[in-house]
Specification:
Strand order of the largest sheet: 1-5-6-3-2-4
Helix content: 25-40%
Keywords: Bacterial flagellum, Cell membrane, Cell projection, Chemotaxis, Cilium, Flagellar rotation, Flagellum, Membrane
Subcellular location: Bacterial flagellum basal body; Cell membrane
Order of helices and strands: HHHEHEEHHEEEHHEHEEE
Shape: elongated
Strand content: 25-35%
Organism: Paenibacillus sediminis
Protein name: Flagellar motor switch protein FliM
Family: Belongs to the FliM family.
């Protein structure tokens, strides 16, 4: 961000230049000198601000889908929000999570590699308690998972990956599948310690219990689709999606529109006196012979040529010829 000087600072600077306390040439030299910034190779910047913004938008949708899913499964109040999206080394992520936690390791075809959905024990045990008929309170101490608890958690979080698939649908049609459920971070090594990851932190509240859900996405996994995470691609794809939806909706509405279809036997001109003198049994001579086809109009445009007849004792018209689209009937 560019620093803006106040009026007092500008006056003080001009006074210093005029009094000789500061040299204008020295200021120019300082500006032309190269600015050196330290760079930590262990914290390599792989995700641009543009990528971080796109990941934030995607996982805000993920949080909404997840809220709906967990609310339906647990039948209680659930609130999930994106707190932060940041990039950091994988080793730092492992050291930041509890020694005893719930780690859902999964892949997402067609992407290659593995990702992790880490759930704080308070949140995970509150879910299990609700699924088993409890009030949703987490235990004071979390020990080793039993086989029943493991199966329940696998079932809950396997369904949660459908929400992730829906959230990513605008960028990539992926199919997340759980590979394993771990509780010790030391036994989980999905990438090298120095590999940069995107960490999406979700604050989660289930009833009176709160905790964090962290989604770890290694850079090497989503590197092939990084170009799709740009804001330009995001808005263009959304615009195309909306445009296609509008076209489909328009087609559906037009297909249901009703149009008048008229089959004309012919025309005849009568004076008002002749018209008023018509009675039962009179015959009106038309300008077409019986050998000529009928003009079938859709709206006011000539579209078909046909011949009269009957079907099941009802008057009908058989289409014999299709007139080129847009060609109107010529005046006789």
């Amino acid at each position: 961000m560019v620093d803006v000087l106040s009026q007092n600072e500008i006056d003080a600077l001009l006074a210093a230049l005029s009094s000789g306390e500061m040299d204008a040439e020295e200021l120019k030299k300082e500006e032309t000198q190269k600015k050196i910034r330290s760079y930590d190779f262990k914290r390599a910047v792989r995700f641009s601000k543009d990528h971080i913004r796109s990941l934030t938008r995607i996982h805000e949708n993920f949080a909404r889908y997840l809220t709906t899913y967990f609310s339906a499964q647990l039948r209680t109040f659930v609130q999930i929000n994106v707190v932060q999206v940041e990039q950091l080394p994988y080793d730092e992520f492992i050291r930041s999570i509890p020694k005893m936690t719930i780690l859902n390791i999964f892949n997402a075809e067609p992407l290659e590699g593995r990702m992790v959905l880490e759930v704080h024990p308070n949140v995970a045990y509150a879910m299990v308690d609700r699924m088993l008929g409890g009030t949703g309170n987490a235990p004071a101490k979390s020990g080793t998972l039993t086989e029943i608890e493991t199966m329940i958690m696998e079932r809950i979080f396997s369904g949660a990956f459908d929400s992730l698939r829906e959230a990513w649908k605008t960028v990539l049609d992926m199919t997340p599948r759980m590979e394993a459920l771990e509780t010790n971070p030391q036994f989980m090594q999905i990438v090298s310690p120095n590999e940069t990851i995107a960490l999406i932190s979700l604050s989660t509240k289930i009833g009176d219990t709160s905790g964090m859900i962290n989604l770890c996405i290694p850079h090497v996994v989503i590197e092939p689709i990084m170009s799709k995470l740009s804001v330009h691609h995001w808005f263009v794809s959304q615009k195309k999606s909306r445009a296609q939806e509008e076209v489909d909706a328009l087609k559906e509405r037009v297909s249901k529109a009703k149009l008048p279809i008229v089959a004309e036997l012919g025309e005849s001109e009568l004076s008002i006196a002749e018209f008023l003198g018509l009675s039962v049994g009179d015959v009106i001579t038309l300008n077409k012979s019986v050998e000529e086809g009928l003009s079938i109009k859709v709206g006011d445009k000539l579209k078909f040529i046909g011949s009269p007849g009957t079907v099941r004792e009802r008057v009908a018209v058989q289409i014999d010829e299709v007139v080129s689209e847009g060609v109107e009937e010529l005046d006789e």
